Amino acid sequence: MPIASVDTDPQALTLTVVADFTVPVRRLWDAYLDPRQIERFWGPPTFPAVFTRHDGFPGGLSQYCMTGPEGERSCGYWEWVSVEEGRSFEVRDGFAAEGGQPNTELPSMRMTFDFAETALGSRLTTTTYFSSLEELEQLQAMGMMEGMRAAMGQIDAVLADLSSFAAGAGTETQLIGETQARVSRVVRGALPEVWRAFTEEALLRRWQLGPDGWEMTVCETGAEPGTALRSEWRNLESGESFGFVGSVVSAAPPQRLVSTERMVSPSDPDGASRPETLNELTLTASEGGTLVAYLITYPSAEVREAALATGMAEGMEASFARLEAEVLG
Prior knowledge:
InterPro entries: ASHA1/2-like_C, START-like_dom_sf. It holds the Pfam family AHSA1. It comes from Leucobacter massiliensis. Belongs to the AHA1 family. There is one protein chain. This protein is an alpha+beta fold. Helix content is about 25%, strand content about 40%. The protein contains nine helices and 16 strands. The chain has helices at about 25-35, 35-40, 135-140, 145-150, 155-160, 190-200, 200-205, 300-310, 310-329; strands at about 5-10, 15-20, 50-55, 60-65, 75-85, 90-95, 110-115, 120-130, 170-175, 180-185, 215-220, 230-235, 240-250, 255-265, 275-285, 290-295. An eight-stranded antiparallel beta sheet has the order 1-2-8-7-6-5-4-3. Strands 9-10-16-15-14-13-12-11 form an eight-stranded antiparallel beta sheet. A hairpin with a 4-residue loop joins strand 1 and strand 2. The model has no long low-confidence stretch (mean pLDDT about 95).
């Protein structure tokens, strides 16, 4: 159990939890900033969490839900207030409805996470600030401390798993709910360069090629909301072609880009008959490079299954390998 001390201060309206770890600060920091890792310990063992958004930058948002053994659900959100890379971050933490909207019937809290180096590894000090003594007592009565102890009891196993989250581990696909999939990979390269590689036409043409034997014939891209997007590829041997069209919904350079996408073909050049997906790209600085996370929302489980069956993840892995070579130069 990593928790070293718990201090409740009714006068200051704070709850402070100190936890010690035998890993470097960078490893602990990455565990909190990587949605694949934090969801392994943020919820208690019987209420595992799934993060559908985890921005990690000021003005950003995190959204998650915990699911119990009988299917009961408890959802929450973080509004990211400040981030000092590798040292601390502050969020506004609250309860949420299923759709992610804040639940104003329950209290929200300010939370700070401070990371420090120690002789044996690292220390995390988490301080929760309440608006009133009543709110503090209400959340304690709801089992906040018991849930926190149970959740943090899982973190050591996550920190010990180095290979699953390291650069070079390959592309990982995770199914979320009935209609979403998250595709993740740590790409060797600094975040600003990876952002450029995703948003500049000349760079995209060099790496976003999928499996060997294909060329990109059309590349219209950008990062401004409302920008029309279009990419097309052709098989060098058979002449077969396909592509995607869409538009930018929102952007927070250099960390987040949200766009729509639907497939096009010679017989359907506008993709009018094809289902549309929502693609949420989030880039997060990580040890060894930049964590690239795509959350793709499909219109149905059947459409998701059909998309994954095309070998989409394998094609993305081939492209990510080229992306690494591009940003490392």
